[in-house]
Amino acid sequence: MRPIHLACRLTIAAAALALFAAPAAPQDLHPSRRPSPMGTARITVGDVYVRVVYSRPYKRGRDNIFGTAESKALVPFGEVWRTGANEATEITLTGDMSVAGQPLAAGTYSIFTVPGPESWTVHFNSALGLNGNARRNPETGRFEAVDLAVSDVLVTTAVVGTLEEEVDQFTITLEEAEGGTDMCLRWISTEVCVPLRLPE
């Protein structure tokens, strides 16, 4: 009986060892498998390369995307939006350009927007590496909101247009235009375009 008893003990010990030794499955954070995957828009205008990196949320059956806070819209009018999902949207310019007539130096900027029913406010901001409008505090491990007003580099407004065909997934494009490019934001039936031009 002793050999059988010893075998049972060895089996139990081996099972326990395997249980505690097995590594925990890592959280799948690959951008392509996020609910709002990453997207990139890019264009070369003259000698200037422009790239936008952002996350692309889907409609996912939500009928009230842009609207009033009272209507419980996903993106309420008058409130700062990260212009996508997950990390803040960022734009990189390898050369100086103008945005709606205002100069913007070469560099990388976060893009924040404040949607409205007829026009949007668009912020080009020097704060980088943000999750939305917050940054992780290494001491507390918590995300803390950043005062974006102190790091705004350029603020402009853009008129809201209406799309004939619904766009299910939030999209940013950089489209050829005379003297530069138009950065166009489209989601559901809303379209907002911001002109970026080479210096004259």
Question: Can you characterise this structure?
Answer:
This protein is mostly beta strands. The protein has one domain. It is 10% helix and 48% strand. The protein is globular, with a radius of gyration of 24 Å. The N and C termini lie far apart (95 Å).
**Which strand order spans the largest sheet, edge to edge or round the barrel?**
1-2-5-8-9-12-13-6-7
**Total number of distinct structural domains:** 1
Mean pLDDT: 84
Structural class: mainly beta
Instruction: Report Rg.
Output: 24 Å
Span between termini: 95 Å
H/E element sequence: HEEEEEEEEEEEEE
Instruction: Please give the count of helices.
Output: 1
Q: How is the biggest beta sheet arranged?
A: 9 strands, antiparallel
Q: How much of the residues is beta strand, in percent?
A: over 45%
Low-pLDDT parts are 12-28
Number of extended strands: 13
- The helix content, as a percent range, equals 10-25%
Shape type: globular
Oligomer: single chain
In short:
The chain has one helix at residues 2-21; strands at residues 38-45, 48-55, 66-67, 75-76, 89-93, 97-99, 102-104, 107-114, 119-125, 134-136, 143-145, 152-177, 180-197.
What does the secondary structure layout of this molecule look like, with pairings?
Elements: H1 2-21, E1 38-45, E2 48-55, E3 66-67, E4 75-76, E5 89-93, E6 97-99, E7 102-104, E8 107-114, E9 119-125, E10 134-136, E11 143-145, E12 152-177, E13 180-197
Parallel strand pairs: 3-4
Antiparallel strand pairs: 1-2, 2-5, 5-8, 6-7, 6-13, 8-9, 9-12, 10-11, 12-13
